[in-house]
C-alpha cells in the first residue's frame, strides 16, 4: 500500500499541489480504519519530517472526527513512542480550522 504511494515521488515534489492532490487521492482510495494503523507503524519504524507532513496530509483526506477516533487508542498505547506519534497527529486535528 505505501510502496504504491511513494513510488516515483521525488523529495522536491512534497511541497507542491501535485503532491497534496496525491495525498488526498490516496486517502480517497483507502479506508481510514485500515490505513491509519499502517501509517502510524511506518512512521514509528521510519520516522522523518517529510513522512510526518505527508501522513498528516493523507489523514486530512478523511473525516476529522473519524481520524481522531482511530488515533485515540494509539495515544493511550503503552508503547511510549506510538503514543507520542499518535498524539502529534491527533494535535493536527484538534482545531476544526
What would you say this structure looks like, in words?
The protein is built from six helices and no strands. It is an all-alpha fold. It is globular, with a radius of gyration of 13 Å. The chain is 72% helix and 0% strand.
Give the arrangement of secondary structure elements.
Layout: H1 2-6, H2 17-29, H3 32-45, H4 49-59, H5 64-75, H6 80-94
Helix pairs in contact: 2-4, 3-4, 3-5, 3-6, 5-6
Keywords:
mainly alpha; 6 helices; 72% helix; 0% strand
Total number of strands: 0
Tally of separate helices: 6
Helix content: over 70%
Shape: globular
Overall mean pLDDT: 94
- What fraction strand? under 5%
Question: Which H/E pattern describes the elements?
Answer: HHHHHH
Any low-confidence stretches, pLDDT <50, length ≥5?
none
Largest sheet: none
Secondary structural class: mainly alpha
- The total number of structural domains is 1
Amino acid at each position: 500500500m505505501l510502496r504504491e504511494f511513494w513510488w516515483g515521488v521525488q523529495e522536491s515534489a512534497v511541497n507542491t499541489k501535485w503532491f497534496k492532490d496525491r495525498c488526498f487521492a490516496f486517502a480517497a482510495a483507502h479506508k481510514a480504519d485500515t490505513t491509519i494503523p499502517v501509517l502510524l507503524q511506518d512512521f514509528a519504524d521510519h520516522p522523518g519530517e517529510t513522512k510526518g507532513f505527508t501522513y498528516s496530509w493523507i489523514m486530512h483526506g478523511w473525516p476529522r472526527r473519524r481520524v481522531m477516533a482511530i488515533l485515540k487508542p494509539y495515544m493511550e498505547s503503552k508503547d511510549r513512542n506510538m503514543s507520542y506519534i499518535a498524539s502529534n497527529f491527533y494535535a493536527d486535528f484538534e482545531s476544526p480550522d
